[in-house]
Amino acid sequence: MKKWFHTLALACAMALLTWPAGAEIIVLPSGQIGVMKLSHEPRRGLSMQQVRQHFGVPLRLLPPLRTAPGYPTIIRWIYPDFTVYFGNGQVINNVAHPHAVATTKSHTPQPFQ
After folding, report:
1. Which residues make Cβ contacts (< 8 Å) with residue 17, sequence separation at least 6?
2. CA–CA separation, 101 vs 37, rounded Å?
3. pTM of the prediction?
4. Which CATH number do you get for residue 41?
């Protein structure tokens, strides 16, 4: 009985070691790998007033996003190269527009789309 148990345990261990590993392969288009930040984006923590003073009037002010109770309403301002997200009147994030990231190296301004 003892030898049978050891043989079973060894067989299970070998089966686990040879079990194919489950992996998902994700192919990303060239130029979309990683995160690129622009050098002229507002940094986290700036107030709405500071952003407006430094970057000017946004192209568009989007309607506020209502969130769950206890969380701040999200305000979004769209600039030519990025969108700024505010919570409680301070920058919580910003996202570079794809055309801005693509033209960062050439420094060629692109119209907002």
Report:
1. none
2. 8
3. 0.57
4. 3.30.1450
- Mean pLDDT, the chain, as a whole number? 74
Total number of domains in the chain: 1
Q: What tens digit of pLDDT does each residue of 70-86 get?
A: 889 999 999 998 999 99
Three-state SS annotation for 3-15: HHHHHHHHHHHHH
Token pair of 83 as six digits: 């969108």
* Coarse DSSP helix, strand, coil percentages of the chain, rounded to the nearest 5 percent: 25, 20, 50
Q: Give the Cβ contact number of residue 41 at 10 Å.
A: 19
Strand positions, DSSP E, 1-113: 60-65, 74-78, 82-87, 90-96
